[in-house]
Amino acid sequence: MSSRRTTTIAGSLVAASFSAVMIFPFTAVADDQGPQSSKGGKAVDEAPAGVELTTTLPEKISVDNKSQETAITATVKNEGTEDSGEIKLLVVGFDGLTVKNVQGCSQITESDLPEGSNSGFACPVDNLAAGDSKSYDVEATYDLSKKGRICLPVQTTSGDKTYWQQGPVPFGTTNPSPNAPATPLLLGTDNKPVAPGGDELAETGAKRDVLPLGAAGAALIAAGAAGLWWSQLRRPVRQES
Questions:
Q1: 191 φ/ψ angles, rounded to the nearest 5 degrees
Q2: Does residue 150 form part of some domain?
Q3: Where is the signal peptide (predicted)?
Q4: What pTM was computed for the model?
């Protein structure tokens, strides 16, 4: 078990995440990220009748090879016929992808981060009307010598239920461009960086990409590189692609 204190319930993660707000000076600007995708997303706990919550991420991002900076647009949607009520979105980074700031959101303290993650922010979405969406500008860095993943859970304000979770889903490329100004990365692709001084591909990061889902409020476990947040597998209610 890691020495890091493991958050025991999903609710405490959300509650603790609002203890501080940190704003970083950051110059990354989102390029044309193309279409958004819910790839790697699954429904977890049943949402209220008429509420259908999902998230999307850009299908491609671009990482500056010198500064390692990138920009990501994270969007939460209510595709149902009824208002969502107050909800929260978490934006959490794993491995080579580090979330530096999410506009209007509060940084999750290091001691309250899920096991295996390196950074995270909690965003108060409040009520999301039927058919509406809300987007957040995510400022991040990506160490291209590693794999990198991001996770977007959508929870009640208390954190006792998780209606939807996208990821941890990877961004990456199988064709690194070390001499180019920037490296394009694709959603749902494991990053395969070339090892220094050779053609052998480095094997870094997690061996599994998708987070198994368990009952809301189940204990977070120290799963190391696997990045598991919940300890019991449960039936998937819906999967978007």
A1: -75, 135
A2: yes
A3: 1-30
A4: 0.70
Per-residue pLDDT tens over the stretch 27-81: 333 445 679 999 999 999 999 999 999 999 999 999 999 999 999 999 999 999 9
Number of domains in the chain: 1
Q: Report yes or no on 233 lying in a domain.
A: no
- In this structure, the dihedral spanned by the alpha carbons of residues 93, 94, 96 and 101, taken in order and rounded to 10 degrees, is 10
CB 75 within 8 A of CB 56: yes
| 8 Å CB contact between 193 and 148 | no
Q: Does any domain span residue 72?
A: yes
Domain CATH for 152: 2.60.40.10
Print the domain residue range for 137: 36-174
The verdict on residue 90 lying in a domain is yes
Tokens of 44: 């977890």
CA–CA dist 240, 175 (Å, integer): 27
Rounded to whole angstroms, the Cα distance separating 40 from 20 reads 29
